[in-house]
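Postdoc handover notes: sequence design on the structure in folder B. Input tokens:
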């Protein structure tokens, strides 16, 4: 997608603080962190949201990247979030998983 900021990050057209890069997935630090550790994990290929992601293998790669990132950064306790749609809080319409850690997480969220 031509004007998608996450596509530009995945294609290295925009710099980001990468913490992980696999064949189809990248993880990078959020520029507007909502926790002391806030990392976004995205597929390199554009999918607007979880509703469009029909590649089960890629879903597994995204979750494996979360596991690899938290292991690498020695994060034992964290929250993952996938916002799907505007009303759920999705601001960038390229599927991404938030990894939030380093503070107490309240329940219910939101």
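Designed sequence:
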């Amino acid at each position: 997608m031509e004007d998608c900021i996450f596509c530009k990050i995945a294609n290295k057209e925009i710099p980001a603080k990468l913490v992980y890069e696999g064949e189809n997935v990248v993880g990078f630090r959020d520029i507007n962190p909502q926790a002391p550790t806030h990392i976004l994990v995205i597929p390199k290929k554009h999918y607007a949201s979880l509703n469009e992601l029909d590649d089960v293998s890629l879903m597994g790669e995204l979750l494996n990247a979360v596991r690899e990132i938290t292991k690498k950064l020695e994060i034992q306790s964290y929250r993952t979030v996938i916002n799907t749609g505007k009303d759920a809080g999705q601001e960038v319409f390229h599927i991404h998983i938030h990894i939030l850690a380093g503070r107490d997480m309240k329940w219910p969220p939101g």
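Context for whoever picks this up: The helical segments are 5-10, 56-72. Don't rerun without checking with the PI first.
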